[in-house]
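for the writeup, i need someone to sanity check this before i put it in the appendix. the sequnce is what the collaborator sent (i think, or maybe the updated version? ugh). structure was predicted straight from it, no edits. if anything looks off just tell me and ill rerun, i have time this weekend
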Amino acid sequence: MITTSRRPSRRTRSLVRDLSHVIPSALRVTRGKKSLEDLREIAVAHGFTRVLVVWDMKGNPGGLVFYRASLSHVDPLPRWIALSGASLRREIFPPKPKRVTGIVDLAVAVESPAPLGVAEALSEGLGVSSVYRLPEDGWPDADVVSLVSLRGGRELISFYLSPDDEVGPRLYVKGVISRASRG
């Protein structure tokens, strides 16, 4: 399940929509005044065990915060991903991005020489069992691959149907934040 922080910007709402198009079986929920407990109830009612909240920072998407939802409570996962920017699907593929349909599974891959930290936090947050290391492991056999790579010295999360078929969005990573270090 994917939602926003309260009072999100247009760009953050657009990013949530884009992510719901490329993450398999994702349910996009308008946050409004819903508490985390309300989000837990919605997630459990729809059979989800993960909640992704896209946070806003100065009018732009600022972070991906992951929660584990169960019948009795909602717990934050130990790491979240701070973003320094995002390119929306409509910005990457003007005038209109192609429709992505039939997505059943997602794989997370990291392209050498990018470090594993972002890919591991993303796979844990999305409930993906393993991280592929490219090119050693080869291209994963999945409908959509979330690829963590280095571009211009920055880590980038992007989404692909095949090695040559990017479907967006692109998320520029500032870093992985551990809850223990948030103080």
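The chain has two domains: 2-80, 106-181. The mean pLDDT is 93.
thx in advance!!
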